[in-house]
Design brief:
It is built from 17 helices and 17 strands. By secondary structure, it is of the alpha+beta class. Strands 1, 5, 6, 7, 8, 9, 10, 11 and 12 form a nine-stranded mixed β-sheet that branches. Strands 14-13-15-16-17 form a five-stranded mixed β-sheet, sandwiched between helices.
Length: 437
């Protein structure tokens, strides 16, 4: 019976695994150089954890189940609630600010589409315990730092920034009742994903006031803070946006961002600055998204401590890097350091030593020196063994032949085809002096 793959999941054969590792290595390296420490949590949590504050969209996409004790659990669709729970648990002993990163495997029962799957990896960076807008600037800088590290430039990507606080103030000015804000955020977040008339209909159904709907629509189209100020008056939340942008300019990423009131974020817990990164051609879904969430720790029973962070999935990123020819994964080209071949016509050397026993012994010694080495399982002709070595992307072939009796190996450079006979002891001592372990 053939069992098909589950919809929205991926199999990582070695080439795909090399790409995944390469992406994750980059995330980790850039996290560390920006001062973040790694953490992780469990792959499943109590179901209610995602029902409290993630919002209906995430709650509808949960893979949930009951354990044998009848407890309702869910596979994590994001790691931010786990982070809040973990930090709350040790809040008195953790030095602040807490700057942590993680690369969890997440599951969401979304409709699979380009860049959105049911299982994916997501880089998270979060700063907890810092109200200063410089923390938001650090999150955005670290995000851009990685995207630049991967080879993308301001020609390829754009960080779109807004503020939930400002949005709330403007919507209040427009007359939207406080109680409708959370539902309105969800609709506004969908603006670019929905046909225009569906978006309009959803606004109509929620607000039931055509004047309000038209003002909300006008606001969503504005292009700079000045226009908002002209229409809705100066809002307190503008100051932090202006300050944030100044920091980003000082950090040298002024060409990478723009203000965009259309950025709302779908998750319910955001309270302040919010941002998403897109490909500049706007052909793909968001590369990543994040923002400030100052109430989540308190909502999870902890103290009122502010937080800001970002999540970036591997799917859109990989598509974009591939499109731009930037998937330059060294592991895809690399193979073995050495392949040990043996001349098949030699049956044995003295002292019960066979070419095979010597080949596996030599392989074990080289592996101790941290070299990647293999020996064919088949005793075929030398030509076939060399072919196998080539198919494994081998750098050098070590041939055990007649001269092995005199302590010599033939070393064949697989790129140039050149070969020479070398003293085995000298060869090994030369390697061990270079070896790092
Ligand atoms: P999010 O907007 O739900 O935020 O997801 C952030 C990113 O994760 C998306 O921009 C996308 O790259 C990736 N992603 C989300 N869903 C999928 C999917 N089904 N398939 C592939 N990739 C996906 C959060 O998750 C927040 N917890 C981020 C955060 C951390 N905010 C503060 N700290």
């Amino acid at each position: 019976m053939k069992i098909p793959q589950v919809k929205g999941t991926r199999d990582f054969y070695p080439p795909e695994m090399a790409v995944r590792n390469w992406i994750i290595d980059g995330w980790k390296r850039v996290s560390r150089r920006n001062g973040f420490e790694e953490y992780d949590g469990p792959i499943f949590e109590r179901l209610e954890m995602y029902q409290i504050k993630s919002g209906d969209e995430i709650a509808d996409q949960l893979f949930s189940f009951q354990d044998r004790g009848g407890r309702n659990l869910a596979i994590r669709p994001e790691i931010t609630p786990t982070l809040a729970r973990m930090v709350n648990q040790q809040i008195n002993s953790l030095p602040r600010p807490i700057k942590w990163f993680s690369v969890p495997r997440l599951c969401r029962a979304e409709r699979p589409q380009k860049g959105r799957l049911r299982e994916f990896f997501q880089w998270n960076i979060d700063i907890i315990g810092e109200d200063n807008v410089r923390a938001d600037a650090d999150i955005i800088f670290t995000t851009v730092d990685y995207l630049r590290y991967a080879g993308l430039t301001e020609e390829d990507i754009i960080v779109k920034i807004s503020s939930r606080r400002m949005l709330a103030a403007v919507l209040k000015e427009i007359g939207v009742p406080q109680g409708s804000l959370d539902s309105l955020y969800v609709i506004l977040d969908k603006k670019n994903k929905l046909p225009d008339d569906t978006f309009e209909k959803m606004l109509d159904e929620l607000l039931r006031d055509s004047g309000m709907v038209s003002k909300v629509r006008t606001f969503m189209e504005l292009e700079n803070i000045q226009q908002i100020e002209d229409m809705f008056g100066r809002q307190e939340a503008f100051n932090e946006l202006v300050e944030l942008m100044k920091f980003l300019d000082s950090m040298g990423i002024g060409d990478y961002y723009r203000f965009d009131p259309g950025i709302v974020r779908g998750l319910a817990y955001y309270t302040g600055i919010v941002f998403e990164v897109y490909d500049k051609a706007s052909e793909l879904r968001a590369i990543c998204g994040g923002g400030r969430y100052d109430n989540l720790l308190k909502d999870f029973g902890g103290p009122a401590i502010s937080a800001t962070g970002m999540g970036m999935g591997d799917c859109v990123l990989e598509i974009l890097l591939k499109e731009k020819g930037l998937l330059d994964v060294p592991e895809l080209k690399s193979g073995l350091d050495y392949f040990i071949a043996r001349v098949p016509t030699i049956i044995a050397f003295g002292d019960n030593r066979t070419p095979l026993s010597e080949a596996v012994k030599l392989a074990a010694e080289l592996r101790k020196m941290n070299k990647s080495v293999d020996v064919s399982y088949k005793l075929s002709g030398l030509g076939k063994q060399l072919k196998e070595a080539a198919s494994r992307n081998t750098e050098k072939c070590l041939i055990i032949g007649e001269e092995f009796e005199d302590g010599k190996l033939v070393v064949k450079d697989m790129a140039t085809g050149e070969q020479e006979s070398v003293d085995m002891k000298l060869f090994l001592s030369g390697l061990s002096s270079k070896s790092d372990r």
